[in-house]
From TrEMBL:
It is a multi-pass membrane protein. This is Cytochrome c oxidase assembly protein subunit 15. It comes from Paraoerskovia marina. GO terms for molecular function: metal ion binding; oxidoreductase activity. Keywords: Cell membrane, Disulfide bond, Heme biosynthesis, Iron, Membrane, Metal-binding, Oxidoreductase, Transmembrane, Transmembrane helix. InterPro entries: COX15/CtaA_fam (IPR003780), COX15/CtaA_HemeA_synthase (IPR050450). One of its GO terms (biological process) is heme A biosynthetic process. GO terms for cellular component: membrane. The chain crosses the membrane at residues 20-42, 78-98, 110-132, 138-157, 178-200, 220-241, 253-272, 278-300. Pathway: Porphyrin-containing compound metabolism. Signal peptide: none annotated.
């Protein structure tokens, strides 16, 4: 009498590396923000064509090389491409550690694919940008995609530390609604900020300014208005959080966003009245990326997920 064949249990060949997941996700978020800074440096210095082709930097060579006619532009552009490579390695690590974790939900595992998809999309877009000589719309799209990747990376990092049961709200419904609205209102703040930069002297081309054909002053006022609306809702959210005795994690996340927003406002007005110095514009871009991560965190602190 034959005995039924038993299927051997699946072994998790990455089990020894699972404790690294949190650190890898933190690094992924940091570098997602960092590449906005290096991409901003490319834009602010007009180095978008520092490397004349893609994926090579120059015909026949992948790296920036010194020669008598060398300018600093190719080193800035090549440096940004190098950071993209680092981000690609981290994205692959995220896929290996998150997407193969069978102990987690399918939705969580699929979320782990986004950083890698984003890196590939950004690399292809960068190549198209070089071939199209820095088309202004695509230059702006670069930042928008990066902002989305920062948001997803912040979400992924938070999800890694919680379970996969359906979310349970831990705040009053009104406060949760306000937290969600903060994320919604952040979108026009970021998008209008990108348009302001593209419409101004830091559009990504050191020969042609104001590449996006809109009124820079009008776009600046619209951007400022969106920030004031965002700040008003943020203030209301903070008041409601205190009045309803929201958990400390919620108020902490809100105060962090308050500090970032006020800092961004200060930098924004100073750069406007000082002729848009490149350093301040770069700091403003960094602040925008940090703001995205901070705002995404707010509604996530307003619910909990238990382990299944």
């Amino acid at each position: 009498m034959s005995t039924p064949t038993q299927t051997p249990p699946q072994t998790d060949w990455l089990a020894r590396f699972r404790p690294w997941t949190h650190g890898v996700l933190v690094a992924n978020l940091v570098v997602q923000i960092g590449i906005i800074v290096t991409g901003g440096a490319v834009r602010l210095t007009g180095s978008g064509l520092g490397c004349s082709t893609w994926p090579e930097c120059e015909p026949g060579q992948f790296t920036a090389a010194f020669h008598p006619e060398t300018s600093y532009h190719q080193y800035i552009e090549f440096g940004n491409r190098t950071i993209t490579g680092v981000l690609g390695v981290l994205a692959i690590a995220v896929v290996l550690l998150v997407c193969t974790d069978r102990s987690r939900s399918r939705a969580y595992r699929l979320l782990g694919l986004v950083p890698l998809v984003g890196v590939v999309a950004q690399a292809l877009l960068g190549g198209i940008l070089v071939l199209l000589h820095l088309h202004p719309g695509l230059v702006s799209l670069h930042f928008v995609i990066s902002a989305c990747l920062v948001a997803v990376s912040a979400l992924l990092l938070h999800r890694s530390g919680e379970g996969d049961a359906p979310p349970r709200r831990v705040v009053e419904p009104a406060l949760h609604t306000l937290g969600t609205w903060l994320v919604v209102l952040m979108v026009p703040v970021v998008v209008l900020g990108v348009i302001v930069t593209g419409a101004g002297p830091h559009s990504g081309d050191d020969e042609i300014a104001y590449r996006i054909g809109v009124d820079p002053a009008l776009m600046t006022r619209l951007h400022a208005a969106s920030v004031w609306i965002f700040l008003a809702v943020l203030a209301v959210t903070l008041v409601v959080a205190f009045r309803t005795n929201a958990p400390r994690a919620v108020t902490k996340a809100l105060w962090i966003v308050v500090v970032i927003t006020l800092g961004q406002g200060l930098i924004g007005y100073v750069q406007y009245f000082t002729g848009l110095p490149a350093l301040l514009v770069g700091l403003h871009m960094l602040g925008a990326a940090v703001l995205v991560a901070g705002v995404v965190k707010v509604p996530l602190t307003m619910r909990v997920r238990e382990a299944l």
